[in-house]
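FAQ
Q: What does a multi-component entry look like?
A: The components come first, one per line:
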Amino acid sequence: MKNLSIKSNSEKLIKMVIAGYVSQPSFRSPGYIPDNNGKSVIFPGMYGISNNIKVGDKAFGWAADHVEPGVSIDSPKNEEHHALHYLVCTGNKAIIRTGEAKGKVGIVTGEHARLLVHFEKKILNKICIGDQIDIISHGRGLKLSDFPNIELKKVSPKLLKSLNLKIKHNKLIVDAAIELPIKIMGSGAELNSEYVDQDLMSGDKKLIKKYKIDQMRLGDIIVIDHADHRWGRSYKKDYISIAICIHGDSVMTGHGPGIMTIMTGGKDSLSWKINKKANIANYLKIDK
Amino acid sequence: MIAKTNKNLLIEMSVMGNVSQPNFPGLPSEPYKLDSNGSPFLLPTWGSITHNISVGDSAFGWEADCIHPGVSIKYENDNGNRGLNILSCIGNEAIIFSGEAKNSKGVVTGKSGRFSEQVIIHFPKKIREKIAINDKILIKSLGVGLKINNFKNIHCKSLSPILFEEMNIKIKNNKLLIPIKNSIPSHLIGAGAGLTSESGSIHIQTSDKNEVEKYNLKKLNLGDIVLIENYDSRYQHGYLQNSCGIAVIGQTDGPRSGYGPGLTLIMTGTYKEIQTKLYSEANIKKYLNLKE
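Then the predicted structure of the entire assembly, as tokens:
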């Protein structure tokens, strides 16, 4: 197996700043959601600042629904919301521009309905809802010179370099912590694959246990066989999609931990190797 | 033995919508959408009055993106539209309350999901000629709350008692025996997973043409009753081994990734209580006696 540096067009990419604002947790009245068995529950999860959940932590087992690690930022303007989603890439630098933590630097760890940014714990304590965080977006347009048929999404050149990619028999080999069966890929199939994520469906607890999917961690690189995520997310034999686990489990039917696509292509050029340490917390040296 | 229900306890309640106008995205991508191979396409899509496609016609092969047969309606504000979407059931009577086709009657045949959220109604083609965009259509909704006696674990949704009684459902070996046109394996279920099972659609995905061939899906028609294998739709739609759903094909195939013919779920339970048998005429056109 060759460990050559993987060639890309990274020197041709644009670095462009885009601002988001720290979001406030939001609920619809009455707040209850039905769990897999129809029991109504209220849980924290989406939006806001998760002080005690970070990339590298477990994806399952929290008293939460769709929990987002670190700081979730968004823009209330629809066009800016979409610009954040279409330009920001995993591994991008984030700089706090207002408030008590002004000037502090974090790193983008993915996107859910909002963009997710990691900061050191002592910085988290100084961040207020509404603070402006600028992202130096870098990665949109990234291509692998020797693998024109592999599509990259939301991968910064920094993340690409750190992924420990290998080439074997002219295929790109990506380390993945867990393989997910295509039949449990759920909510998000209705969205384009440049936007947010797709949930794995964790409602079949026996299956989740059998495949050890409940060991998944936030930030894990995962692989789905027979999934084509080039323009949308669909079943296609002999296509492979690689993604990052970006939010925690959900009690809702058709939902579960979210995975955000970073790579997709045919079996003829893309493959994977299971490596339990394949997590962006390790790759991007996200401090504990 | 014939299955009985609590139909005498259900509420018949009016809900209203207006005939909807087709929508397309604005600049900069205007007016294209993307097919599953990334190519831009421009085709008629959901909403409006479709003059030449009706329940009973093929769900495949049209130059169309998830077209609704007949007439599609929507209410102008979101919560009111949810009311229209949730309470309307397949088989409900629809009455036109304004315009040239005033007082004409139709029948609810399906619903559509996220980004569209419309109720689909069959009217004979001659009546469609007289219907205008924005015409008011009232539905006498009846069916939410429907339960089947002795099958308390089977959840009915979007299902009117009228349709239930016409589906030739028998009780055999303590199971409901439901005639269906075809089965859809769980890996070919796409858009709609994780979304509400009370109002929207869940779609068969058809990007992999070999799989479509393998499961003989191209023979499916609008209005066909199908089985969704290993899916639990009691509270939203999601994979669960040994659960299953019964659904009606409401809209046609389309070229987008994750999307194909849309299904309106009418029953969900487990294989312990639901058994199916293939029946080539399991279609709501026949069951609801929809006129050309």
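Q: Is there any commentary attached?
A: Sometimes. For this entry: The longest helix of chain A spans residues 78-87.
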